[in-house]
Amino acid sequence: MAATASLTQLSPIFLASKSHKQASINTKVGTFHQNRNGFSLRRQILKGLAIFPLTSTTLLEQPLPSQAREVEVGSYLPTSPSDPSFVLFKASPKDTPALRAGNVQPYQFVLPPTWKQARIANILSGNYCQPKCAEPWVEVKFEDEKQGKIQVVASPLIRLTNRPNATIEEIGSPEKLIASLGPFVTGNSYDPDELLETSVEKVGDQTYYKYVLETPFALTGTHNLAKVTAKGSTVVLFVASANDKQWPASQKVLKAMLDSFQV
After folding, report:
1. Distance from C-alpha of 259 to C-alpha of 82, rounded to nearest angstrom
2. What is the pLDDT of residue 69?
3. Which InterPro entries match (predicted)?
């Protein structure tokens, strides 16, 4: 009886030990399957890489956005035929969504070779609303830390007039146009008292309105130059901006850029 009792008392320990061993075996089996699956997955990945190798050429085909933004335009744009101290930017369908959609006619302007092209947020680029945008959008933007920045803003003609393919004169006077587009010059608000000078320029059949503004509260800068025209279904606005520190040395450069703008 004593032997039986001892055996009975030891049985739970024996069973627990047996369960522990079985669990250990199950764990090892599970680990084996997991490792085998992992090995199989790795083998498939390696097989895929063998078919489509990631060569250094593949990795370098597309430059990093940060690198592309840091390139001076003089390294890839041609010298301006009219002034060798500038380079010439001619917008083409590859440059913006609106040009690809045919909503904006190609435009051009000169800029110093040391300037760099800046990124435009998708919400401002018009990329999300082409081919029919209800509000103005930013086409391109260039900047230089010492001299200022420029941008091209496009607006649907329907926002300013119901007349299809209207000329800038048919839309209204220079004062009327800047009252509508002023916030897109300053980046926030427009006060008629900020307008210092207006002028009208004719280049062939195309008419341009030009503006000089002093904008102390503008997000774009305390000094703004603007030039606007209408062509097709779009009004196109060129804006050159500088702060008080940049303006004394850069105003001649910015005016030359403004004068060169054509659609």
Report:
1. 12
2. 54
3. Mog1/PsbP_a/b/a-sand (IPR016123), PsbP_C (IPR002683)
